[in-house]
Amino acid sequence: MKTLIIIDVQNDFMPTGSLPVPLGNEIIPVINNMVNKFDLVLATQDWHPLNHVSFASNHKGKSNFDVIKLHGKPQTLWPNHCVQGTKGAEFHPYLNTKNFEAIFRKGTNNSIDSYSAFFDNGHLKSTGLTGYLKEKGITELYFCGLAADICVYFSILDAFNEGFNCTFIEDASKALDNNKFETTKKDMITMGIKIISSKDL
Length: 201
Ligand code: VGL
Ligand code: ZN
Hints:
Keywords: Hydrolase, Metal-binding, Pyridine nucleotide biosynthesis. It holds the Pfam family Isochorismatase. The chain is of the alpha/beta class. It has a single domain, classed as Rossmann fold (3-Layer(aba) Sandwich). It has helices at 27-34, 129-135, 148-161, 178-191, and strands at 3-7, 40-46, 67-70, 73-76, 100-106, 140-146, 165-174, 194-196. β7 (165-174), α4 and β8 (194-196) form a beta-alpha-beta unit. Pyrazine-2-carboxylic acid (VGL) binds next to α3.
């Protein structure tokens, strides 16, 4: 069963949002035009409480994009984004969500960040996505969305390590930092993850 996982296509990651991904809005028509090529379409939402540890506003004296140590690991501090129940956390209004079979929310625990659709950043807690996919016998996953160098990348890494066959759809994704994206792409190629264009589907 050919399965698409659409990562975090939410208002706050759009050019007019609080944590803008350059040209993030350009992927909407690309995604809408390809969803019918899949047997199953799933999506994620970054879904933070207002007191989330990844927000610079919750750390006295810290600024957006500072990096701190959290549970012994580097944590980037972000502007407030995708706060549960706000407009910014909603899917982009033009994204066709009609055929989404399920939506997985992540980053809901205030004390740990979660870039991947599968696990939090400390790999302490699963979102249940692996179990959901394995129960359905799914082996082949396609990924797209925002941000290509962060949440899409970490979702693909986890999916690969969970034994799924992974493909990244490049023109249906945009990166927050294009230099970092080049590195993550090399990583993906080294691991044997396929990188395609939606035209190849
Ligand atoms: C994301 C930074 C913080 C993402 C989420 O969806 O890529 N990036 N939270
Ligand atoms: Zn976030």
